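Q: Here's a chain of 383 amino acids. Please give me its 3D structure as tokens.
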Amino acid sequence: MKKPTAAETIGHRLCLLLVPGDNHAVVGLSTRERNRRVGERLGAIIVEDSALTGCDADQPLLVLPDGLTIDKALLKELDSLKPEGVFRLVTPRYREGLYFGTVGDWLVPPEGGRRVAETTRLVDSRWILLARTPREARVSSWVLLGASGKPTDGWVSRHLNRKISRPIAFLFLSFRLRAWHASLVNLIIGLGSAVCIALTGYWTLVMAGALFQLASAFDGVDGEMARATLTESPRGAWIDTSIDNVTYLACLVGLAIGWGREGFGAVGLALACALVLGTVGLLFILFRFVREHAPDGSFVWVDRSIARAAETSGTLLLRLVRLLFLGLRRDFFAALFFLVSFAGHRSAIVLFAVLGFCVALFSFALFWRKIVQAAVELREEAA
């Protein structure tokens, strides 16, 4: 069943009045533009004229002056207020308050004066962010980027990669760059890793590991930028997934070339080439799975489907597969690649890649129906 939007849960379509004023950019956007995107995302009516054209008298109204931006969680909180009167919404840092009531209260105030808020409601400081000064705008940008992670992040992503990607995302947004710029840089870094691993020598292997780890961390930048600016899209997810897999394949090809050049012979080169071709086939299967069963192009849906299948089936073997898949996530694999590169053992990287390929192939061959059923259930819940 489809979950109601915030505007639907408060009984009417919310009217969002944007009042002009001075402000500084937050995550590369004016506060007015970002507030507009928040309202549109949740189905609110956006108005900028004091007559509130298009809004009915009994509709709930939120008045938003420039100089601050709101999080969509605030609009969900409005459901508990039930606009039966006038409220001032304040935070520990913002005491002036936002007006929340009904259109009628705003347009026809009693005795010819603006209705005074009857109740003050304290809300979370993360829901009303200030941008009246450059310092406030910087703080608000960091708050939004800090909340731009995903619940599906692995341990390495949460504790290492996000600490690298968020400052980069902040820098990109400060220069008004877009998410696709970050995706392009990530592709260049990944291809640089592939070139290094195709060369021989200890330090080129270390450089390849470092660049692959950097690409893994940089992979989060475009998503953080998109979520902070409310520009996520299925197309963007597919671009991100495509770049990830081009990077994987390029590095595997480079690994095969470098392995052969270091004198591992025809057998070793044949194994590396078989790994590359097998990975191409596996990625084709994953692409089809995601295209048919996922809401966007993210391969994270595969992890979620396997986790759901392991949870609902109770199969011990599938639970073990789930644990192995966690170890084969890009963030973990990249960190391991980086650490192993210091040992100078290219063969260890090949063996780990072969292990990942075998685990993935085994999982889909043995539990395909359970994983597909889990994906269907997750898609229905998300619809």
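Q: Can you summarize the key feature?
A: The chain has 14 helices and eight strands.
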